[in-house]
Amino acid sequence: MIRLDAEAIRGALSDDVAARLFSFEFFPEIESTNSYLMQQEAPPPGQVSVALTDNQTRGRGRHGRTWQSPPGAGVCVSVGFTFATQPANLPALTLAIGLGAIAALEGVGVPGVQLKWPNDLVAGDGKLGGILTETRSHAPGAISVVSGLGINVDLGSKPAPDIETDWAYGVADLAGIVETLPSRNTLATSLIDGLCTTFIDYEASGFEYFVGRWSNRDWLFGREMTIETPQHRITGTAAGIARDGALLVDAGAEGVTRITSGSVVMAGSRKVNA
Predict the structure, then answer these.
(1) Which residues make beta-bridge pairs with 75?
(2) Structural domain harbouring 113
(3) In what order do the strands lie in the sheet containing 247-250?
(4) pTM, rounded to two decimals
(5) Torsion sign across C-alpha atoms 78, 193, 3, 25
(6) The CATH number of the domain where 231 resides is what?
(7) Per-residue pLDDT tens over the stretch 88-124
């Protein structure tokens, strides 16, 4: 396994991101980069903390699910950021982080990745990666956020990632969708730049800056689906997202329902006329 080169990655970051670094830490192995940053001092407003690893042994997804990749098979990184004042629509940040991750992938020659609301990256119909965003209070009026991102790069003959998920289509990796893989160093640099830039843009403009880009990346749109919310289970056709990032589900005679929190437990083929 060729290990990530933390010094090379840090040295290749954009000037704006490098100037905002509060901390940058690399771990050959760690239970969870998100958990680590959540336990550390939060960066001052406008600055970023980065935790990167070659081997995440107890990675976490939404609702306590696990995400573990074989050593060297992917990139796992978490970025912490402190908003001086809480954004008006903080729950939609995860969607914006997904769009930032896709832009970062495109920047290193990986096209065609889509997003499954609210936090999965999809290649074809396989789960390529996932996002976990967590928050904690900071100084009065401020809020600190940690967003973790895991991407499968090349699973090869390694065991499939240990992912507890409702995903019925299996996993995907970058090796299966591009002829020439970017190095993990290049990929990690681009992802860190992309996540940091997303935080900066979100602080300046909120989700309004991102919402117009979602429709072209929406894996769910037009698919028959079932979603479980804290209150009930809804079956219908995915109809995109609202301006605030809520999922829209067309339940037929019951009308279109807004979903702000929930898990998609089933998604079928996209309707031809969608």
Answers:
(1) 151
(2) 6-213
(3) 256-259, 247-250, 233-241, 223-228, 263-270
(4) 0.92
(5) negative
(6) 2.30.30.100
(7) 899 999 999 999 999 999 999 999 999 999 999 999 9
